[in-house]
Amino acid sequence: MNLNSYLFTSLGLYLFSYISYYLLSPGIGNKEKFLQMRRFLPCAFVATLPAALDNSSVFSKTFFLPLETGLFWCFAFPIFYYVSKHKTAKFFTWHFDFAFGLYVVAWLSILEILFSGHGLMTYFLVIVVSLVEFFLLFIVLFEVFYYITYKTVISENGIMAMLETHFLEVKEYFTSLPKFLILSAILITVGMLLYIFHFNFMVFALPLRSKLTNSEFSLMLVLLCYLTFYLWRPVPEEGLFARTGFIELYINVKDYIKSAGLYKENHFMHLKDLSVSSDINKLSNPHTMILVIGESASSTLMSAFTSCEKNTTPWLKEHAGDDDFCLFSHAYSCWGQTVPSLERALTEFNQYNDKVFNKSFSIIDIAKKNGYTTWWYSNQGYMDSSSTPVTLIAKSADISHWTLQDANVKQYDSALLEYLKKIPTNQNNFIVLHLKGSHYNYKSRYPKKFAKFGNPAEYNLVDNYNNSIYYTDYILQQIHQYASENMNLQSMVYFSDHGDVPDRRRQPDYSGFGGLRIPLFVYLSKEYSKTFSETARALHDNKDKYFTNDLIYELICGILQVKSQNYELTNSIATKEYKWTRETLRTNLGKTPLTEDSKAKLP
């Protein structure tokens, strides 16, 4: 080993990595600076040690791929985070990414040195090492693609959106992308995999490049065992890989989903403690209550709520002035993604209290306690009961069913009408219908005959979105008509999980109010309005007040005339006691006040 060359190379790598870390870590204090200054020394010296023991250099062609893999990991997440956040965040540091990247250079280099030229063992190690390098570089490539697509670093919201997205929705998203972009991504990925395997087969097939002394061999073996344990230990607090930026985000999201999964366990444990009383049986029996959950519907582009050029909601607009209908002009989503929005909308858990989802009661629980047979029919993608909070709530209904997710058949929301018609009418029913609505890709959400706006043959985001809203209006009309004529419909509520801005690429993170303004309407039968006149009057009196959809639970409780310790009367826009105003309501999961919406139509 050439000691001078080793020291010079190590010092150069140390200075390069530490200075880069320092420049990409705004706001770090002196203690942190000096702490990482010391920590980076062993990282750099260990990274170059295996190559030096092999009488080579870490910068030589032989060790190019280990060095490339490690340095890409060092810089990818920290650079994208810095570019995205340095103007707003006052402090962040990603020293674990640098440490992992440098140590993984050493780990891969040791494997290359120790197992080159050993026959079948070599081929097995080539496959293992190549897959590890591909895995690490693929994550880096994904971060690059994500940044190019959304102009921001990947976040927990982005990861959550991916984990909660059904396979068919992923397929629709990719088929909507330009074919050239898809082909390029495939070629780059396949090319990267082939390059990694080719490089490693060439390098590992080489005979031993130098004779290691017994002490050098022992040192490498000890270092390999230590790095394997230190880098890949699965305990998040101890394994270095698990503490890097991207992986830490992923683990946080998985922990959240796991925590949400406790809902099922807590639900059965605590449901017996839920006490509910109500006067709802003053209505004639049997009767039906319906909640329709929309998808990505923006009130800004719905003619019943906004003076827009195109009449996208003719049925609802026709009834906007009826006494039986109450359209709310200032409704907002609490967040721009389905699951975080609906886990709050459908339970006690909201932006304004300290409750948690997995210990909260839902509208399904309330309806059951009121004696209703509960139904949940969904045209959304189905995941098993351990996946998303929305699925957990849905499966707590007496009957829950999802439309068939056949990749060869487009499932339109009209499929839910057929399920509705199968519900017995000789009992009190509480029905939730979860629409696909205006979920991207918009053009896949409606039959061709509903392509009212634009050229049906053209792919135009705004026209396609308007057509999906037009189709949703038709579905709402059909639901209302059938239930009124056949099910003694007493109340029908419609709201959307969040909105959308069709001519702007949707962001997983908060990106303004455009995707948060949503429709909300309540229909009450004449019998209901007469029987519970105070509720009907309160709804009409409050229709121009501000509202966020994480208070839907309280709205439903108000309509069902609930009295319970698990219902806050002043949170319900169906009561005269409703306390919330534009100045006190928030969105963006409690971070952004509604007063920041400069385009809101003030009453």
Description:
The chain is α/β, with parallel strands linked by helices. The chain has two domains: 3-254, no CATH class; 287-596, Alkaline Phosphatase, subunit A. The chain is 48% helix and 9% strand. The chain is built from 19 helices and 13 strands. It has helices at residues 3-23, 30-53, 64-85, 95-114, 120-150, 156-163, 167-176, 179-204, 214-232, 245-270, 314-318, 338-345, 363-369, 389-395, 415-420, 461-486, 526-531, 533-541, 552-559, and strands at residues 277-278, 288-294, 325-327, 330-332, 373-378, 399-402, 429-434, 489-496, 520-524, 546-548, 562-563, 586-587, 592-593. The protein has a seven-stranded mixed β-sheet with strand order 3-9-8-2-7-5-6, sandwiched between helices. Strands 1-11 form a two-stranded antiparallel ribbon. A two-stranded parallel sheet has the order 4-10. Helix 14 links the parallel strand 5 (373-378) and strand 6 (399-402). It starts with a helix and ends in a 10-residue tail after the last strand. The relative contact order is 0.10. It is a multi-pass membrane protein. It comes from bioreactor metagenome. It is found in: Cell membrane. Keywords: Cell membrane, Membrane, Transferase, Transmembrane, Transmembrane helix.
